[in-house]
Amino acid sequence: MKLKLKIPATTANFGSGFDVFGASLRIYNEIEMTAINGKHQEIHFEILGEGRKTLPVDKSNIVYGAMKKVFDTLHFTHYALHIRLINNIPLSRGLGSSAAARIGGLVAANKLCGGRISDEEIIKIAANLEGHPDNVAPAFIGGLCVCNYDGADVKCVKFQMPADLKAVLCIPDFEVSTNMARKILPKKILHRDAVFNLSRSALFLSAIIQKKYDLLSIAMEDKLHQPYRKKLIPCLDDVFSAAMRNGAYGVCVSGSGSTLLAIAARNMKTKCERIGRSMQKAFCARGIESKYIICDFCNKGVLISK
Ligand code: HSE
To answer: Domain residues of the chain, as ranges?
Structure first.
């Protein structure tokens, strides 16, 4: 059996939705899997693109870790697999590379086993592996996902991302580990900070649905994670100001960083380029190299072909 999957990059903590809003982006990792029945759990990995020199090519690879969850659940033991990963999503930059790997592994293994695990269960297993739901849900189903995770189960509603918006992603050349970026968060927050984010996240969703993009500058403000994670992304305020001065609707940290995301109008290519360049320049002023990508949001999740 042969299988090809494309899994999108994702931006978690989208807008002001810390651990709740995630959206998928038109940058894809690909998995090509060839499975032969009969042999006993032989795995061969080949990795191209991001992480080709650093990611493990044995059973400790997280794509296999996710596959094994499915195999164990369904008592599937006899297989030989050749897995080729073509990675385009930058690693440890807040663009959902680990979620794409896990969703890819789960979906590929489930397909191999006859699709016996439900979509809800896939998202749940993936969220439990990741520890948060806001990358895995949009990686799987696409669009803008509103996720509720109680530490075990996920409830999720998908909205379409409007086609007239673009994401300008400024990706600095340093990594941020999500583990570290979660440890840096306080155990307690002020009541007024909770209200601050609650009001903005409701406004964010309303602004996207009703296309009231002028509200995004306020609706994307955050007090739940960005103030604390500034320590890991030192020139965050300067990059945000540069993007806003150059016409972005709103700005946020993508996932736990290090990528910073600006939302802009899709039909204004030159403005998007200006925003990207200004963000790059603001990083550069602090001695940090970066690149920018002008990217579409996408409303489809995993794409499967044979
Ligand atoms: N919501 C997660 C966090 C996303 O901020 O830790 C990580 O990409």
So the answer is: 2-160+300-305, 165-296
The predicted pLDDT at position 53 comes to 95
Task: Say what the pLDDT of residue 38 is.
Answer: 65
Q: In testing the pocket of ligand 1, which one of 95, 169, 225 has its CB within 8 Å of the most ligand atoms?
A: 225
CA 160 – ligand 1 centroid, Å: 21
Angle (CA) 249-251-256 rounded to 5° is 155
Q: Give the distance (Å) from ligand 1 centre to CA of residue 183.
A: 11
- 18 CA closest ligand 1 atom index: 1
Token digits of residue 240: 């945000």
Q: How far is the CA of 114 from the centre of ligand 1 (A)?
A: 32
Express each pLDDT in 29-78 by its tens digit. Answer: 999 999 887 666 788 999 999 999 999 999 999 999 999 999 999 998 87
For 2-160+300-305, CATH gives: 3.30.230.10
pLDDT in tens, 203-250: 999 999 999 999 999 999 999 999 999 999 989 999 999 999 999 999
Contacts for 93 with CB less than 8 Å, ≥ 6 apart: 171, 172, 175, 176, 254, 257, 258, 259
| Fold matches, 2-160+300-305 and 165-296 | no
**pTM listed for this prediction:** 0.95
| Closest C-alpha to ligand 1, atom 4 | 255
Q: Please give the distance, rounded to the nearest whole angstrom, from the Cα atom of residue 273 to the centre of ligand 1.
A: 27
Does the 165-296 domain belong in CATH 3.30.70.890? yes
Q: Give the residue whose CA is nearest to atom 5 of ligand 1.
A: 256
Reading the block at residue 119, the tokens are 């979509």
196 — pLDDT class (breaks 50, 70, 90): very high
